Amino acid sequence: MGKQKQRGHGEGSIYQRKDGRWVASITLENRKRKYIYGETRKEVQEKLKVALHEQQQGTLATGPMQTVKAYLEHWMEDVHKPNIRQTTYKRYGTLLNRHILPALGHVQLQKLTAQQVQSFYARKLKEGLSISTVRSLNAILHKALDQAVRWKIISVNVCDAVSVPSVSRSEMKTLSKEQAQKLLEVAKGHRLEALLTVALSTGMRKGELLALRWEDVNFEDMSLQVKRTIAGQFKGEYRVNEPKTAS
Length: 247
Prior knowledge:
By secondary structure, the chain is α+β, with helices and mostly antiparallel strands. Helices cover about 45% and strands about 15% of the residues. The chain folds into three domains: about 5-55; about 70-160, DNA polymerase, domain 1, CATH 1.10.150; about 175-240, no CATH class.
């Protein structure tokens, strides 16, 4: 069956492909075409209606007229999500939806200024957000705007001109040799004795300890390998990932 081209109320082309799927296309600000797919003509027509409305409002995630919200959502889902862990994606999504989008989402991407971003960080600190969280907000925004610069949607990354609060590093509190020995004495016979022994003797992270399997232990040369880590729960099940770093 060949393509059956039909107009969607004069607002973009809708047609059916040879494989039976329906396609709609609209012209973007950069003269390129955006394609929308669906199983039925009605489904595509509804998606096209939304896209045209977004384009009219300047929120479609293409070209210079888009808002910060439209761009960040597009960047997060289509660019950044495939390259990060599920736990990182969830954390970034929370920071976006709770903080960045409500404050800056309405601003046109090309009109976002360093002063707006600086005021946003200052306001979040006054609201009680920790310095480390504000630094995470900046990391997300900086990475996303770097991509916008590479795509030539904006000319500069405004985050480069923003002062980000620094975190004072507190000295790590560790057990003394005597305290470690006392802990192992008390733990003798306890179900966590082996776990505590490995933790004290290797310094492995909690997730790495909990993800250990017998196959990771080599009794011949008295060594073990860190091959995976538990990265929290997702939909009621523990997620097992690769270690945090190659080392």
